[in-house]
Automatic annotation (TrEMBL):
Organism superkingdom: Bacteria
Stretches assigned to the RCK N-terminal domain: 429-546
Originating organism: Bailinhaonella thermotolerans
Keywords: Membrane, Transmembrane, Transmembrane helix, Transport
Entry protein name: Uncharacterized protein
Family matches, as PROSITE patterns: RCK_N, ZF_UBP
Amino acid sequence: MDPPIEPVGRHVTAVALSAGTPEFLGPVVVFLFAAALIGYVFVRARVVPIVGFLLAGVVIGPNQLGLVANAEVVQAAAEVGVLLLLFTIGMEFSLERLLAIRRYVLVGGGLQVLLSVAVTAGLVMGFGTGWQDALFTGFLVSLSSTAIVMKVLAGAGRTRDTTGQAALAVLIFQDLIVVLMVLLVPLLAASAAPGSSAGSAAGPWELARVLGTAVAVLALVLVVARKVMPPLLEKVARTCSPELFLLTVVAIGLGTAYLTSLAGVSLSLGAFLAGLVVSESPHSSHALSEVLPLQIVFSAVFFVSIGMLLDVRFVLDHWLLILGLAVGTVLIKTLTGAVAVAALRIAVPTALGTGLLLAQIGEFSFVLQQSAPGLSPAGLGANGAQALIAVTVLLMALTPVLSWLGERLGRRARPVRRRTPEAPAPQTPGGVLVIGWGPVASEVAALSRDRGCQVTVTTLSPDLAAQAAADGHRVVRGDALRQHVLEEAGLHDAGVILIAEDEAEHTIRLLNVIRRYAPDAAVIVRPTDEVDPAALVGAGASRVVDGTRSVGRTVKDAMVRALGREPDTAPYPDTSLPVAYEPDPDTACPHTQSIQVVLPSTPGCAECLREGRTDWVHLRTCLTCGHVGCCDSSPRRHATRHWKDTGHPIIASAEPDEDWAYCYADDTTLDPIR
């Protein structure tokens, strides 16, 4: 009799529990900790973390401390990092975006790559190197680091100045042309192999076949992007399952890369095309925001793996060679980049500054290096790869310094009348960002638009997004807890941010994210459930509307006031403006512990308004519950009555120009902290 068959799940669990520590876990933990630790040091020093990741790889690599011996695990994760990096870059592109700045991309970017390749290849061939290695070296040198350049520009707030726009255009062209380079490099390697001939795999017919395949795949991708992807992602998004949405997007990215590789097209091209497919969907911002955390982790692994390849002993033994190659690279890329940018009729000092900013070698040069066995950078043979890694790490680390020098040069530029690239106009300052959609948000958005403000709406719901778009508002689909979605929606340009359709707990989470990236933004919140003014103000709310006791009119008034325009009738106190009174700590009153952050209950004395009266003299706000009553000089003295009825001892003056408080129990005036 055969023994009973155990369930597969129980068997797998037993193996997992008895197998001990997996072999791959140690290397993964080491390089993640090293990347986080050294990356943190570099961020604190205001240096882009990618440089820290590279250095982390140098430190833990087999040529130095040797903390990671299983290079296969790192290499596998690094390959996933490259695919996700290309996938996300593809998602950040769109056909409309490329068309908007096509002249800057094609002329500026095309000239920069063409000149860099030509000058570099010519110089290398002048030293007796074969044309294949020389052209390959030109490819490597022509590429700059999109990740580092954009990080440096964003940190300096220069993404929209002339240098930033010109650099962006060149980088876009580089990111596109690298796809063609990935196709050509294996052909160069085959041509350079011993025994190759004119009719070998690198011949014109093979090149035509590869390019023809790429064009066919691209045509198929464009059809899928227009016809298949939008409805597919729409159906997945309607499930409102973040897990399913993320799995679908990653499956699209890696699956497309795999299928294109089966057709003879590189994995890198497939990943980029997959991102381009997703970019044509209305859910592209949502998709990118979900994938970015994964991309960051795996891309960090990629940079760590590159750093692991560097041999410090090689650098010490060949420091003069490394220095000469680095200086030569900076000179070539600065001059060729300056010529390319100057061709766009940009002032020469600004063009030189842009050239300096782009003077490093980019991360995709490593991708090319890994896809070209048999080719050697600069014809240096076995030393070529180490020389490339050393020069790249050095120039990446120097990019902030080169950017600073370029900015100094750019300041000497004369004003240029010509507008730089015809990119879509950014959201104008004073715009309104609405997070979440519903009846109240719709009313306030319509009011804001009628007052001349551009309104942008973010929501995860496809149905609500469609409603907001039908009302004529710009819509960014995605989770507003993600930095990318907020930035895509214009967080930094919004004059006012409204959160009116979420519960208090989720509103506080949104406030924490918003304050991390826009600490000075004016934020109006209207939780749909019970309000805790102290928690909301502590999280960063500027104005709080109590949805349990207020109607849309109150939210509208709060928006108008936040925009700096008083409503047609502006009663006081402002019921959306929290009262957070902080008495002087030296005050002897023992009742200050009853003070809370409160919202004024009514725009006037609560009891007088119920009685249809407005004959109060002054108004007082209870600092325990927010009740608004009239003062003792008024006919009915409702503030004092409230104290006697409730025992709430401390009130604050609700008059616009007064900041004192008073304790009924101790007959003491409380001064605020000065």
